[in-house]
Amino acid sequence: MKPDEKWVLRLYIAGMTPTAERALANLKAICEEHLEGRYSLEVTNLLESPALAEGDQIFAVPTLVRRLPPPLRKIIGDLSNTEKVVIGLDIKTLE
Amino acid sequence: MKKRSANSPPEKQGDIFKVFVDNAVDGLLVIDSDGIVRFANPSAIALFAPETGALLGLHIGVPAIRESTELTVARPDGVRHLEMVATEILWEDKVASLASLRDVTDRNEAEKRVRRLTRVYALLSGVNSAIVRIKDARELLPEACRLAVRAGGFRIAWVGLVDPVDRRVKPVAWEGAGALDYLDSAPEIRTDREPGTGNIIEQTVTGRTVVMSNDIQNDPRTLMKREYGELGINSLIALPLVVDDAVAGVVALYASDTGFLDDEEVRLLTEVAGDISFALQHLKNEEKVAYLSLYDSLTGLPNRRQFVDRLGQLLSTEALKDGKLAVLVGDIERLRGINETLGRRAGDEFLRQMAQRALRHVTEPKWLARIGADHFASVISAVAGPDDVARRLEQVIPELFREPFEVDGTEVRTSMKVGIALYPGDGADPETLLVNAEVALRNAKQSGERYAFFARDMTARAGERLALENKLRQALEREEFVLHYQPKFDARTGAITGLEALIRWRSAELGLVPPAKFIGLMEETGIILQAGAWAMRRAALDHRRWAELGLNPPRVAVNVSAVQLRQRNFVGAVREALLSGVSPTAIDLEITESLMMEDVEGNIPKLNDLRALGIEIAIDDFGTGFSSLSYLAKLPVQALKIDRSFVVEMTSQTAAMTLVRTMISLAHSLGLKVIAEGVDAEEQAKYLRLLRCDQMQGYLFSRPVPFDEVAALLRG
Predict the structure, then answer these.
(1) Does the predicted model carry a pTM greater than 0.80?
(2) Which helix (H) or strand (E) holds B95?
(3) Which of A47-51, B326-330, B437-441 has the highest average model confidence (pLDDT)?
(4) Among the listed residues B170, B173, B255, B180, the one whose alpha carbon sits nearest the alpha carbon of residue B212
(5) B35 vs A60: CB contact, 8 Å cut-off?
(6) ipTM score here?
(7) Which of B33, B66, B71 is opposite residue A76, by nearest beta carbon?
(8) Which among A14, A47, A75 has the least Cβ separation from residue B61?
(9) B382 — pLDDT class (breaks 50, 70, 90)
């Protein structure tokens, strides 16, 4: 994976619940540490745009989807387990 | 690898585990490192896919959690919340996650509701104590917003007031992240639309009603859905603030959860808005008359009334308990002459200049007051004694008048005479001190001195007090005190429901001494502690005597004074007094509202202990203190006694009538009995019955009467 490759992440939530807030904060910290300047992060609130979930097949939120680079990867939960997030997103291969 | 069928755990783990897993209440999922579901038990399928029944092979995502996390799932039957715990396991020799899931939606709802109500109660009580504490709308409204966010759990709170000029609602206070940006971007709020039209805030104003939305994103009335989405706001409530019977503004509260507002919460928030409205009404009235009633319009200085109030406050502060202070009254010499020779206008101008100049010589502007046409008053605190005051005056008076005043081009030279009263020696209350300073001023003028101290014959006065004090002590020993009893009557049946014990002093030397003459001294000297205990014991004994006469006496209430209640061991003193009489269960206590509120937190445990002794407690003179509703609900009291002043005014003033009605319904809603005091006229009684007052007391029914007359009344 090229180091200058653009990462596109999308976090699905259903309203800014405490879990969603935690997930977002954890995700931002991880991205800033490992992907600084190379990622874009979208937050999709399913309460506002439920249709968006269908493309990515979301079963439960919070779910984080790595849309780019392929392949699509999914992580579920509040992202408090940083190690799992890093492995799950396959960030390690970057370094 | 063996082929497996859905819902079957690995065979090597045995049938017993399969039974466990299939019947587990919790949903169990095995998710591989690519986030694909490899195993799901029936409960998991029911949680995620009750319709299709298929979960295996679906890409759900790798759990990345440490402790438990709450997931949200949208199911055809609604949104559910699942608590998930995940553990790392080996599944077919590869690392996988075992996720255990439990539906906590219902539990959450119950917990949330309790938490939310706790928060709203905190908000209500916070707002109430702010109202008592803060007397300025500019401070009160931001504090209310702050409380709504910090204590009430709202994301944003703001208060808007109707602008008297353009009739738009203008935000005046707000709190919460993003509140200011939100208010900046919000469209103007009009108050002239047809009722029921416009956005939620406008509908609140035009309809004069609470308007709310528990799901903003799906509410056609909300305009700023995108902004709300970004702020994470899903519920909104707007409540009107009603002052002078018109909508004066709006409280708007925004919460993140959908469905944040249930009936109970709305009821409490309506109460909060009602309390804020009440405070605004009060502040508004106060602002209107405050300047006129508390300031001298000519000089802008505090007037006599304000000076007395402030002095009273100062005297009641703890810090002053051991300190001395001097109250000074100054008289401008030749003011009449100035008025006569230069004209009244020039005289007024001179007084204004005089006030400005004198202000430079007082520690705080509030301590210079104009209390009469040519009289100014001031206070010097922390004085060592008369010498100290004299030294300061010797310095200040010449300084003050060294330069002549220039009025209408004419030089005016004058000076001042000062009378001084020292606290505590020359008086314990502001009025006495002021009057005594004025007496001293007359002495100064007569003697031609620049100043004079109040100097009634100190030894004689101390002697007088000492003599009275001794007489009071003897009176206790000689049993010169008697109790008279004023009955309370059931408002509907007219039956006697209770008796209030009132102390009377039949002095062998002085004759019948009215309570006003000796209660104050009793409190000052602490004799009230013995006298109070005596009254309780006497009341209990009298009660027993009536019972022994076969009269079925009602409960007897005894008044409690400040000195008694402040005793640390008040409850013990009550118990002791009552136990030496008879069983305490026939004795109740009446405590004035202002005394109760003096230290509410400290009093609640005392009152609870009294309750445990079987004593009922009534709040006396209700309406004269400033009870916070939330405290009222917390106080272990059983009855309210409406102060006589309201009863007197209710037949002539609608405001007093409204207050009485409110007090009665408030008391009833808190489960308290209501007793009206001072009922002297049939018309008052008639209204009180209409307002469903429970009991009445007053000269219309019976004055306070001695023991034998009570017996006669009880015989009927």
Answers:
(1) no
(2) strand B94-103
(3) B326-330
(4) B255
(5) no
(6) 0.90
(7) B71
(8) A75
(9) confident
